[in-house]
Amino acid sequence: MLTLDTRTVPGSSYAQYVPMPHHTDMSRLVRLTDSDTDDVLAFLNRRPVHTVVMTSMIIDNGIESRLNRGEFYGYCGVNGEIEGIALIGHSTLVEARSDAALRALAHQARRSSTPIHLIMSADDDAAAFFHHYGKGTLLPRLSCTELLFQIGFPFPVQDCEWDVRNARPEEVEQIARAHAEVAFLESGIDPMARDREGFIQRVLRRIEQGRTFVVFEDGELVFKADIIAEAADVIYLEGVYVGREFRGMGVGSSCLAKLCLDLLGRASNVCLLSNVDFTHAHRTFQKAGMESAGSCTTIFL
User: What is the span of the domain harbouring residue 173?
Assistant: First the structure.
């Protein structure tokens, strides 16, 4: 059961934090451990589509794992109920249901031992989080709004002539290059150039988990999509890619529709996020049967 205590980063105390407004009660913030798992998942499952990434990471790795590339923190209100949870680290994910929780989690992020690359949350929470994190003076490297696309039964099934299958470890090089291309379009950073070995290892791990789906023809990658997160009722895709010579031919929409049809056999909804400016990709998603279902903000530091 999640309870309040005085746990802090080793060698530090909350009194050493940057001075905060009197209404930011950091004593209600705790670093989460595996013993908090049931309470944390219950909180996240109230909004399963918006919190599927954190939920999936906890299910896959546990709350305390280097694979999360950060640490989970929780904020409890005066009644003892959880009001906010965040993974603070390389990819900082925030689910806050009170202003007090959002502020406290943002102030905690200033102490992150893992450099923060991006901040993501539903609606405008990421912008508010970043404002508190940077004390209103820090400017983001890049900020973008992403549309949430979602699909569930019923939807019109279309024919697909391509064999959409699980990727194989020996295909990791081509898949990593394709995924890096998608990541560069989103963030302006090429992960293959920044940390080639680490990036390929993360791509390989996802392949070995059975979460990367591909189409190959004559040894060339035609289509790719990855499950970034999976919970009881939601599967979240990312990295949808179509080979250059196959673009504009309906390959992406037909392969994505076939993949979604298969995945809906094990989840009620399949969703993905896409930059609001990528209208060509949105047409592909809509042609595959997906519908726009909200938005979130991603801030790159």
Answer: 150-294
